[in-house]
Amino acid sequence: MMNKSQVDIWRQGIESRLEELTVNGAKQNGELSHIKESVDEIKSMVKEQNGRVRKLEQQTSAIKAIGSSLAIVFSALIGWMFENKG
Predict the structure, then answer these.
(1) Cα(55)–Cα(52) distance, rounded to whole angstroms?
(2) Element (H, E) at 16
(3) Do the Cβ atoms of 26 and 34 come closer than 8 Å?
(4) Confidence (pLDDT) at 32
């Protein structure tokens, strides 16, 4: 069995460890909230970039469609011109 001074030392050790764990827990909670804020900001930026990429892809598709149509029209026109010459 422990005497009073040993019990007091043991209690102080336990209290010190509990205080340390409380401080560490608070630090981790602060770090987690910072990480969550950063992740939310990154999500927002990715959504914005996806919107820009989508718009650029649509514009590229429109340009390709117009170019293809013009190529067909000019090919037909050149074919018609050579057909009439011969």
Answers:
(1) 5
(2) helix 4-85
(3) no
(4) 83
d(CA 79, CA 64): 22
**What pTM was computed for the model?**
0.52
Three-state SS string over 18-65 comes to HHHHHHHHHHHHHHHHHHHHHHHHHHHHHHHHHHHHHHHHHHHHHHHH
* Dist CA 69 CA 76 (whole Å): 11
What residue ranges of the chain have pLDDT lower than 70? 1, 86
Contacts of 76 (CB under 8 A, 6+ apart): none
- For residue 5, give the H/E element and its range: helix 4-85
2 Cβ contact list (under 8 Å, min separation 6): 10
